Amino acid sequence: ECRMKKKLIIDVDTGVDDAQSIMVALAAPDVEILGITCCHGNTSLENVLKNTLRVLKVCNRLDIPVYKGCPKPLLAGKQNAGDFHGKDGLGDVPDPDAPGLDLLQEKRAVQAMLKIAKENAGEVTLVATAPLTNLAVAVQLDPSFPKKLKGLYIMGGNTESRGNTTPCGEFNFVADPEAACIVLERFTCPTYIASWEFSCRRSLPWSFVDEWLSKDTEKAAFMKKISSLSMTKARSAEYQKEITAGKGFNPCDVFAMAAALDDSLITDSDEVAVTVELAGTHARGMMVLDYMELLKKSHKVVIMKNVDSEKLKQMLINALK
Amino acid sequence: ECRMKKKLIIDVDTGVDDAQSIMVALAAPDVEILGITCCHGNTSLENVLKNTLRVLKVCNRLDIPVYKGCPKPLLAGKQNAGDFHGKDGLGDVPDPDAPGLDLLQEKRAVQAMLKIAKENAGEVTLVATAPLTNLAVAVQLDPSFPKKLKGLYIMGGNTESRGNTTPCGEFNFVADPEAACIVLERFTCPTYIASWEFSCRRSLPWSFVDEWLSKDTEKAAFMKKISSLSMTKARSAEYQKEITAGKGFNPCDVFAMAAALDDSLITDSDEVAVTVELAGTHARGMMVLDYMELLKKSHKVVIMKNVDSEKLKQMLINALK
Amino acid sequence: ECRMKKKLIIDVDTGVDDAQSIMVALAAPDVEILGITCCHGNTSLENVLKNTLRVLKVCNRLDIPVYKGCPKPLLAGKQNAGDFHGKDGLGDVPDPDAPGLDLLQEKRAVQAMLKIAKENAGEVTLVATAPLTNLAVAVQLDPSFPKKLKGLYIMGGNTESRGNTTPCGEFNFVADPEAACIVLERFTCPTYIASWEFSCRRSLPWSFVDEWLSKDTEKAAFMKKISSLSMTKARSAEYQKEITAGKGFNPCDVFAMAAALDDSLITDSDEVAVTVELAGTHARGMMVLDYMELLKKSHKVVIMKNVDSEKLKQMLINALK
Amino acid sequence: ECRMKKKLIIDVDTGVDDAQSIMVALAAPDVEILGITCCHGNTSLENVLKNTLRVLKVCNRLDIPVYKGCPKPLLAGKQNAGDFHGKDGLGDVPDPDAPGLDLLQEKRAVQAMLKIAKENAGEVTLVATAPLTNLAVAVQLDPSFPKKLKGLYIMGGNTESRGNTTPCGEFNFVADPEAACIVLERFTCPTYIASWEFSCRRSLPWSFVDEWLSKDTEKAAFMKKISSLSMTKARSAEYQKEITAGKGFNPCDVFAMAAALDDSLITDSDEVAVTVELAGTHARGMMVLDYMELLKKSHKVVIMKNVDSEKLKQMLINALK
Ligand SMILES: [Ca+2]
Ligand SMILES: [Ca+2]
Ligand SMILES: [Ca+2]
Ligand SMILES: [Ca+2]
Hints:
Four copies of one chain form a homotetramer.
Chain A lengths: L5 E7 L3 H12 L3 E8 L6 H14 L7 E3 L13 H4 L23 H11 L4 E5 L4 H9 L7 E7 L15 H4 L2 H10 L4 E4 L1 H6 L4 H8 L4 H17 L2 H4 L11 H10 L4 E7 L1 E3 L10 E3 L11 E7 L1 H11 L2
Parallel strand pairs in A: 1-2, 1-4, 2-3, 4-5, 5-6, 6-10
Antiparallel strand pairs in A: 7-10, 8-9
């Protein structure tokens, strides 16, 4: 028997939840990660590169090529998520044995994306869990890039104007609103979006997390260490103002990855045309859902509304085995 | 025994739901309507004036003073709700015996508001179910106006970026975003907001409506006649795109009025600072809720989340007796 | 012989140059000042009221009615010109004998404007040398106000994106961009605009100023005193960055007033449709000139390009006699 | 003796004036054109490519590598200059012997720019006479690109809010405002800007043009043919609304090229920090000059104010020899 492997490109700004997302992908059966492209975001690009290599090392998968992408958004000012993920983006737990940046590929992330998609036309799924700068530059460089993708899974954007970074804006989209808009306008491949409000509603109970992190494996120890800071923050009163519903553990990026890995994960969704508000004093970077079909866009995306939480938990558990 | 009467100013753009709201107020016990101020909105100011007089005539209350307010928004282009409420704003059912505009007061609406509030300082509740132009001009003319109000009840705005007029914008706010912003910034009196999404969620079943309109009274006959067009539209597929949830009869403006009339109507609410997005390609006119407290505003409004539907129904029933 | 007097309303935010402008009007023959309406602007409304009364007292014209207008712009944040005109708006030279605010009229500025224009329909010229808040509220309250004016003369706005307050914005327009836009959109009476760039180009030589202020009159002494601070600033290197051309004494507001007083003052002008940019990170408040006729506006204004400087000087000289 | 050649990359949207600019460069002594990169703009990218090859063919310089760049702006809607330069961008005079697109390089424009700059670090002058999309993508892909340039010469932008495409916007900047902003923010190499207003003021007399085009050379015949349509338009009443001053022949792009070729061409200029207004109803795409130094930018550009017209004419004459 010959089952076709899912081919992935993962675009990250690693970040604790990006780390979780990568580890979920590494643990999934029948998946081939063709490259991990790094982008500014939760922390500086240099930290993102280092963090990504640390995750791969813990999983013994330093064979996967890691690429250096855009260090800055197209036009937006710098956003900083350092208060949540730690200054180094990975919980501020120093690792003296972190792999060196000499392990990075020479080719730039954008060009690697284009090359991989060209060589695997119609077969590659792109999972984007960072600001969308790399994707926006890629489509500008090669307008045919989206057509070569099998699908695009994004963690980012708001569905109900409930921001976590600005009053109405989610971090990944606010960190590069122009890039987010370019991607939502130009990527006409099948597109699935895990929004901030959705991820809040599908948070997992802390009791699951306690059990999840208690396993006696190297990966679990690593995850426990890097997620300690953000989990403490996530239980704070201040953080409760950011969330729209659902107290508990919100592994944001994992929702997009899990949906990409398992076609049966999404149990409820809307299909709607979307764009991004680029002007606006308070709403800049907010995703706009055109339920009234006023924008006359033919391309619609899948807005995730519910997932099979048990499958999600199992994926998380497998990731730390 | 001597119970204090609730003193009201009602600012309207009559409109079928404004008509319902006025009739609910007229039927309420212990209420004194000190004036009805008219504003552009659902239809032309001239139609709004005529419609308001028609409603008062049916209820035998032409003694209530009606004032002519602003025929235009501050800066916004013209919005038109004529497709829903009818060209004349009241279901396009001509009334040859409609009262003449000579019954209007000479004083302008804005000046009447200021005078009534001054003469009844601390005792007047303002119920605003139209674009907020009159209120914005009033506070600009007399910055102390809001302090003289007991409370302000508004139908308008979005809480979840789910527009009914533009992708993210509700009609009353989009019809004069600058006025809405001025009101939310300057009216520091206790303020209660019935948003579009809230009103959708609390829609009433069509079975109730059928019963409600079937009474053998002059008022019920009038209501049946003027609401026929909009209720047909409300059951159409096209209209379903506008609503965020809750199929059924949505008497928008009545939610704000009912909350003003009965302090126990609101059963769940949020207190949050709000403003209005004035820039923005898609989000202009959208209400912004500052749950994260990034705007550092001390004044918070009450965002209605749930009401006692049985009380609401009883008020509607009383209105047609 | 019976010559018709010019009837004026003057809207001010007094300000050294407003003081000069008022004194030029008071010295003009055949002019009747029906009222001076005060607006926030160069300094707080309270200071503006006090300064206006001080100017009238020096000229023995406390008989002219002075009205209290809007203390705040419609929506804009507070601008401060205190560094140029002094904290009190009039050069920070205390006057222990300043007239008290009890001399003010009871009627509000906006209502006074409307009443005066109604009672003198077609005969009143409005000279506006402040942020345009009062005018914007007036037209909102009574849309027929502009039609009752003989003409409108404005000091404000940019013609070449050369700001003095923001990179592209002039003080009076930036201090209330929404009001400026409302006025340029709704005042369809003959309208004359003295822009910032124009006033810079037509600056007067310092040698004239020295002679002008050296006269041995009470008015000259007053003018010398209140203008000392701003003239020192006007000769500074920092100020040179604000001006587009023309070193020397720029009596901004006087250009608008002088044009209103003498129909032959303007020797060159453009007729062009104008509006105001309300959005924009850098250009908010900038006047937009539609030379290409893309906005399809039928109403055009007169943009002043040159004036008879000798006549202007003579008016200034007469003002201090 | 060994004189160093000027090394150029030319970024074009050919266009009649781009054609003139390329021909001026080809005729200049001691110049080496390392590549011509094509961008959407005056006409479709396909036309731009074809037009560029036609120009090179007339000049017998098809050896110069031509690269295909971005077919679309980052985010802006499509602008069309087809009414001025003709539908094909080159005066709508069909050429049955036009070279085929098989002559284009395989490498993409952006990557070619980066490679050329890397291989000639510090020695390449970039002359950009098109929307700035290619440059913006290049700097996003390689943030060190600007540092490798000797200088950047741009035709584009406004200095006095006098638009030729929108009320305040010049074509090249309006055609991709985000790209223009990225370039003005990130290209910290010595930068020289020939604005729309400047080019209008330095227009050449029609008498010169008549003489210029009358030479009996193949190049003159070609120029006469392709410029016939635009020159007719340039003499029309409609066109006069676009120009700020100076009637006559405006070879826009040539000003930027000529300044790049001859360091002594610019005889007057301002040094000022600049950016681009991205929001704005009327001013989107307008260049903003920060004379007041409010933006606190350390990098300043050279805004061309005057040039040696005799040298310019001689360059144009040499181009058609
Ligand atoms: Ca992430
Ligand atoms: Ca209403
Ligand atoms: Ca003034
Ligand atoms: Ca060009």
